[in-house]
Every structure is written in C-alpha cells, then in structure tokens.
Amino acid sequence: MFKNLITESTAKSPWLFHINSGSCNGCDIELVAVLTPRYDAERFGFKLAGSPRHADIVVVSGPLTQQSLPRTLRAISQVPEPRCIVTIGSCPQSGNVFKGSYSVMAPLSKYVHVDVAVAGCTPKPEAIMDGLVQATEILKEKRKAWLEAKKNGLKDGPKAETEQEVPAAEDVPASGEEVQQ
Ligand code: SF4
Predict the structure, then answer these.
(1) Which residue's C-alpha comes closest to atom 4 of ligand 1?
(2) Alpha-carbon distance 67 to 101, whole Å?
(3) Measured between alpha carbons, how far is 159 from 167 in angstroms, rounded to an integer?
(4) What distance in Å separates the CA atoms of residue 29 and residue 14, rounded to the nearest whole number?
(5) Using CA atoms, how far apart are residues 172 and 95, in angstroms rounded to an integer?
C-alpha cells in the first residue's frame, strides 16, 4: 500500500522500527542514546515507529534466538518495500559471545539481505548514527529505483539481486540452516 505513495516529491523522513532479537540490552541502550537529545538523531529526521508497517528502516539487535527469529522475520516482512535492514552490534552478524548456543540462529544475513551492519560490542552511538545515515542513503537509491520501475510499469518495484524474499516463519529450519530461496 505505502509503495504507491512514493512519488518524486516524496521526501519522507526515515522511520525506524527496532527489533530486539534476544540481546543483552547493551545495543538497545546505545540505540536509545542515539535518539536522545545528546546525539539527537531527529536532526536527520529519524523517528521510532510503533509498527513495522509504518517504518522504512528496520534495526535489529541481538543474536536471533530460536523463539525470536520467526517473529523478527515476520516483522521485517511487514515493513513496506523499499526498506533497509540495519543490524547493530556483533550479535546479529555472528552470534558474538552467544555463538555456539543451541538456541542462537545468527547471522541474520542467512535469512535476509542486510543493508548495513554496525559492528561492535557494544557499538558506540556515533557508529550507530553513522550506520543509520548510510542506510538513509541506500534507502534514497532504492526509492529512486522504485520510482523508475513504476514509470516502467513494474508496480511491484525492481527486484535487485541483493533483495531476497523474507522467508515465512514456518520455513525457517529449527537448526538455523540457510533458507533456500
Ligand atoms: S553485541 Fe554485545 S552489547 Fe550488543 S547485544 Fe550483543 S553482547 Fe550485547
């Protein structure tokens, strides 16, 4: 629905939807710091969205536990295209200190294309802000491509090589094996 609202005159501020997929809360606290007046992410237009359906950028923290992975994928699939996926901290990239646990399903990139990965444990607020600004630039390019596709009659937008369908929660193997598209 929202993709039909993308026009050349649309200069929408990027809204963020944050998913904690089982983190220790360190990354979440730093993300909150980014949104407070000290780091003031709102000067770039960033705002937290209460629903994935209203967001442009998904921010994922945590190592993706067996329980949180299906919910994470479902929430990501509800963010309208074009969207950007940002991981914060080393957990969603590799499992970090939780790697090897029976319940850890990281990395997120096994299941969906990740646009920006902010490394660190815990990443500094400046690094998170930098990642979000990078995501905004990527989002602008994706929006341009969508506009172009709409002009060319592709109402579902372009299918970039880097885009993957978000697998349905029931398609994710319990072992966390890579999902075959
Ligand atoms: S990356 Fe570090 S600070 Fe962030 S959730 Fe994982 S263990 Fe916690």
Answers:
(1) 27
(2) 13
(3) 16
(4) 20
(5) 17
57-61 and 47-48 beta bridge pairing: unpaired
In the reported structure, the alpha carbon of residue 154 is separated from the centroid of ligand 1 by a whole-number distance in angstroms of: 40
Q: Which atom of ligand 1 is nearest to the CA of 120?
A: 1
- The pLDDT confidence band at residue 12, using thresholds 50, 70 and 90, is confident
- How would DSSP label each residue in 103-136? TB---GGGTS--SEEE--SSPPHHHHHHHHHHHH
Q: Is ligand 1 within 6 A of the CB of residue 95? A: no
Contact 98, 58 (CB under 8 A): no
What is the band of 2 on the pLDDT scale with cuts at 50, 70, 90?
very low
Mean predicted lDDT score pLDDT of the chain? 86
Q: What is the pTM of this model?
A: 0.85
Does the Cβ of 72 fall within 6 Å of ligand 1? no
Report the DSSP beta bridge partners of residue 118. 88
What are 83-111's pLDDT values in tens digits?
999 999 999 999 999 999 999 999 999 99
Domain boundaries, the chain: 2-7+14-171
Question: 2-7+14-171 in CATH: which number?
Answer: 3.40.50.12280
121 lines ligand 1 (CB under 6 A): yes
pLDDT tens across 15-38, in order?
999 999 999 999 999 999 999 999
